[in-house]
Write a structure and sequence with these properties.
Chain lengths: 499, 151
């Protein structure tokens, strides 16, 4: 009941005209960047951080959430129409979706993706609404050692457990942790890894890192392999509307996809890849039309797309209740909170209920907006794909450099941007995941301060880390999650077999 | 089975980073006897990087890195060159507009366009629009040179 009341008061915040406008801008921007190859929601939020610094916190955060949800919708459009999924979360959608588009059924594929996203997003946001108060109640009793243990779990699951290679995932994470060390240590006032460069004393900007890795890194990578890779845009032919048969074949995959997506997103496991591929595999097994798989089966679009959106909403559960980001976009949203001096977690629910519940309520509104905007306007969104690739990437780089220099007016910041761009390029080339770097940079310093707080309460005795039953349990979970992929070599490899 | 040279290089870089973090840590001072202080995290990160250097070294030795496509260096040099021009111009007080126009044109060329002068003009127009948007509408400061001061 409590959740209903909170949601109702949140709704009154969300329907304020300014906040509705921010949500609308967010979903429009999110859809656009989701459609455009080369820019994703994480990069967009990163670019907007310096620009929104002076705006109203509630409005900006509502906008960021709209971008997150919109990016998921837009990503499916690109996956279906040009088979180059913008985000890894859309990879499963591209498998059958692009085949449907080639067979002239692009319209129904886009429709089932959009409606499935709506259904999944709404159910998952309801899940968030009811789960959040419980988690907040639990989290209130967490001590610093419990928080530290929780972050260790997030570090391990984000980087090692579900990726292709635990070694490469952990390497990415530790690069992020290393970058998090740079700057003046607040507790002791000493500088670390700064080498006398003044720009490094006040820590590495999350924006610069994210924009470098995502925008510059992506541009370098795509440009370097343009000669091996050509894209082909499928036009949307025929009716946009789903037939009765399409509906009949779609509704169960939507619900099953939601059932995969929300819990996996809500556990601090991170990434929408796992639920989307689990959903794809399940639909392939359960379908009454196995002959369609490999020729464009609608179930193979409906399920993964629902799973994708449900996990996006699920990711907000640990982000809002515990301050734990488990995807690159969630990490950027956390940076968005931090720039206003807000720290997501149980305290935020107590201190700023209007903001948190306003955000949650606005997610429902964003979902409705997305459904209304996406289906009728799909033709318009597709036109974005007609922007010539050279201008698209040149424009992305211009905005990336300007956003960076506007946030920190110093040429050194741009040098860092270029260095992170080269890092992002190399990581893509050698298949190191990017998100753990961003999560490591943001969460590393938080984990460090919790660790030091715990140890200073215990007068330096490390036993405190395993004395609390919560932290002991969490550390065991982290250990299992770390060892599991090495022990079961097959676990991380199911993707390869599903392809 | 063949040894992946690039993979070994990655392992060596990680090892060097581990050493750098460790060296930097040794210069820190502990202020309180009860606090683990600023040294704890660098020790963890350095140890982790060293272990991961070994892990990456093993996978490079076994040759289990994912396959890579052939690499075209020209676009990379163009984009990084454009960025270098921009950084130099800003550092020398030339403002960001000329540099931005150059970055736009070189990036566009990196993606296969062969109309450098036209792209330079387009880049300049975008720079002016963004300057007006950022500086006048959002009250953000961008590095100004002689050109920016005219607006």
């Amino acid at each position: 009941m409590e959740a209903f009341l909170s949601l109702a008061s949140g709704l009154s915040v969300a329907i304020e005209p300014m906040n509705m406008l921010f949500a609308l801008i967010g979903v429009l921007l999110g859809t656009a960047v989701g459609v455009l190859p080369g820019i994703g929601p994480a990069l967009t939020v990163a670019l907007l951080l310096p620009i929104t610094f002076k705006l109203d916190p509630a409005g900006s955060i509502i906008m960021f959430a709209g971008i997150y949800y919109g990016g998921m919708y837009g990503g499916s459009t690109t996956a279906i129409l040009i088979n180059t999924p913008g985000e890894s979360a859309s990879m499963a959608t591209a498998l059958e979706g692009n085949l449907m588009a080639k067979a002239g059924r692009g319209g129904p594929a886009l429709a089932t993706a959009a409606i499935g996203s709506f259904v999944a997003g709404t159910i998952a946001t309801l899940g968030l609404t009811f789960l959040a108060p419980y988690l907040v109640d639990i989290a209130v009793s967490f001590g610093p050692e419990d928080y530290f243990a929780l972050m260790v779990v997030a570090f391990v699951t984000v980087s090692a457990t579900f990726g292709d290679s635990p070694v490469r995932g952990l390497t990415s994470l530790f690069i992020g942790l290393l970058l998090g060390l740079v700057g003046i240590d607040i507790l002791s006032g000493q500088s670390r890894l700064s080498f006398g460069v003044p720009e490094l004393y006040d820590n590495i900007e999350v924006t610069t890192l994210a924009v470098g890795l995502f925008a510059v890194g992506e541009a370098l990578y795509v440009a370097s392999r343009r000669h091996v890779h050509e894209e082909k845009l499928e036009s949307v032919r025929g009716s946009l509307w789903m037939t009765k048969e399409d509906w009949k074949r779609s509704w169960k995959p939507w619900l099953r996809g939601t059932a995969f997506g929300f819990p996996i997103g809500a556990l601090p496991a991170g990434g929408a890849e796992i639920p989307t591929f689990l959903s794809y595999a399940t639909e392939k097994r359960l379908t009454k039309h196995p002959e369609d798989f490999g020729h464009g089966a609608i179930e193979g679009v409906a399920g993964p797309e629902a799973a994708n959106n449900a996990s996006a909403a699920g990711t907000l559960v640990p982000l809002l209740t515990l301050g734990l980001p488990t995807s690159a976009t969630a990490a950027m949203m956390l940076a968005g909170f931090q720039q206003y001096g807000l720290n997501p977690g149980p305290l935020l629910f107590a201190e700023k209920p209007d903001l948190v519940w306003g955000l949650i309520a606005s997610l429902f509104i964003a979902n409705i907006m997305l459904l209304v905007l996406n289906l009728p306007l799909v033709g318009l969104w597709v036109k974005l794909l007609a922007i010539p690739q050279p201008w698209l990437y040149a424009g992305i780089l211009v905005f990336a450099t300007m956003g960076t220099i506007a946030a920190n007016p110093s040429p050194v910041e741009l040098v860092m941007l270029a260095v992170f761009g080269v890092l992002g390029f190399l990581m893509r080339r050698f298949d190191f995941p990017i998100a753990p770097v961003v999560v490591g940079l943001i969460l590393g310093p938080v984990a460090e301060s919790q660790l030091r707080r715990a140890l200073s309460i215990s007068l330096g005795d490390p036993v405190v880390l395993v004395q609390s039953p919560i932290s002991a349990t969490l550390l065991v979970i982290a250990l299992i999650a770390l060892v599991a992929p090495f022990a079961l070599k097959g676990l991380g490899r199911f993707k390869a077999t599903e392809d | 089975m063949h040894i992946d040279i690039a993979g070994l290089a990655i392992a060596l870089i990680l090892l060097a980073l581990a050493g750098l973090v460790w060296w930097d840590m040794t210069k820190l001072q502990l202020l309180s006897p009860y606090d683990v202080g600023p040294k704890a995290m660098p020790v963890i990160v350095s140890a982790g990087l060293a272990l991961l250097a070994i892990g990456n070294g093993i996978s490079a030795y076994r040759g289990d890195l994912p396959p890579r496509d052939s690499l075209d260096w020209k676009p990379i040099i163009l984009i990084l060159g454009g960025l270098a021009c921009l950084i130099t111009l800003i550092a020398l007080g030339g403002g960001f507009m000329i540099g931005t126009a150059i970055l736009f044109a070189t990036t566009s060329a990196a993606f296969g366009r062969r109309a450098f002068l036209i792209d330079l003009v387009i880049g300049a127009v975008i720079a002016v629009v963004v300057y007006l948007l950022f500086a006048k509408l959002l009250a953000l400061s961008l590095p100004a040179g002689p050109l920016e001061n005219l607006l």
